[in-house]
Design brief:
There is one protein chain. This protein is of the alpha/beta class and 254 residues long. The protein contains eight helices and nine strands. The protein is 43% helix and 17% strand. The protein has a seven-stranded parallel beta sheet with strand order 3-2-1-4-5-6-9, with helices on both faces. β1, α1 and β2 form a beta-alpha-beta unit. Keywords: Oxidoreductase.
């Protein structure tokens, strides 16, 4: 499937992974809708690149549908990329004082990273199903963001690991559900990606994580995530798979 001339939404498009993806797909000729809640950053991208920004709450059906409708107005809607962030509650299952982890620390993280991802997935799928099919009944692709924490969650990461594990778990099922409609579903599981969100802590994180990555011995870049998104869109035989983007890193227990 071609990127050029088709419209896409990038949920979380003002964040590190999202902005890099917006820029990569815009350069390839896509018609972009940045769907996020960071209005200042979204409008700055809109003004700089001449793309669309729609204030979008990933938890709200009407809000997500508004971003999708904007994409459909620009041209054939062919791809939904979701890399939104959220609160990552954590801590040990039982603290040093013997108290169990607070339930809301778990539910808030599950809601943000799993339930909202499902919300975007279901609404994007319904919209993609409305598009005219291309060759081989292809209508589009959904790309979600998991994490290698889904496989090797560290101590204190239980809610986040469970949420991202849910994204991994629903990926193949969603691909099977949507295959009759010609819609592919993929997920990317990043390892340690150095994004601007880390600010002054970026150098310290690089010094800690870089040597632990087998090759190349550094943290990943947002542009590498964006390049993988573009490759997934263009390769129609990638479906139902979660691709690790981690330099062969495997998280240690802590």
């Amino acid at each position: 499937m071609e990127i050029k001339g088709n419209s896409v939404i990038v949920v979380g498009g003002t964040g590190g992974l999202g902005e890099a993806t917006v820029r990569r797909l815009h350069a390839a000729g896509a018609k972009i809708v940045v769907a996020d809640v960071a209005d200042d950053k979204g409008k700055a991208l809109q003004d700089e690149l001449g793309i669309s920004y729609v204030h979008t709450d990933a938890s709200d059906e009407d809000s997500v549908n508004a971003a999708i409708a904007e994409a459909e107005s620009l041209g054939p809607f062919r791809a939904s990329i979701d890399c939104h962030g959220g609160p990552a509650g954590g801590g040990r299952l039982v603290g040093k004082d013997g108290s169990p982890m607070a339930l809301d620390a778990f539910t808030k993280t599950i809601t943000s990273y799993l339930t909202w991802t499902f919300n975007v997935t279901r609404l994007a799928a319904a919209a993609l199903a409305r598009q005219e099919p291309l060759e081989e009944n292809t209508r589009g692709v959904i790309i979600n963001t998991a994490s290698i924490a889904a496989y090797e969650g560290q101590i204190g990461q239980l809610p986040y690991a469970a949420a991202k594990g849910g994204v991994v778990g629903m990926n193949l099922v969603a691909a099977r559900d949507l295959s009759p409609l010609g819609i592919r579903v993929m997920a990317i599981a990043p390892g340690t990606i150095n994004t601007p969100a880390y600010g002054k802590a970026a150098e310290q994180l690089e010094a800690y994580w870089g040597p632990q990555v087998p090759h190349p011995k550094r943290m990943g870049n947002s542009t590498e995530y964006a390049s993988l998104v573009a490759a997934i869109i263009e390769n129609d035989y990638l479906n139902g798979e979660v691709i690790r983007l981690d330099g062969a890193l495997r998280f240690p227990p802590k």
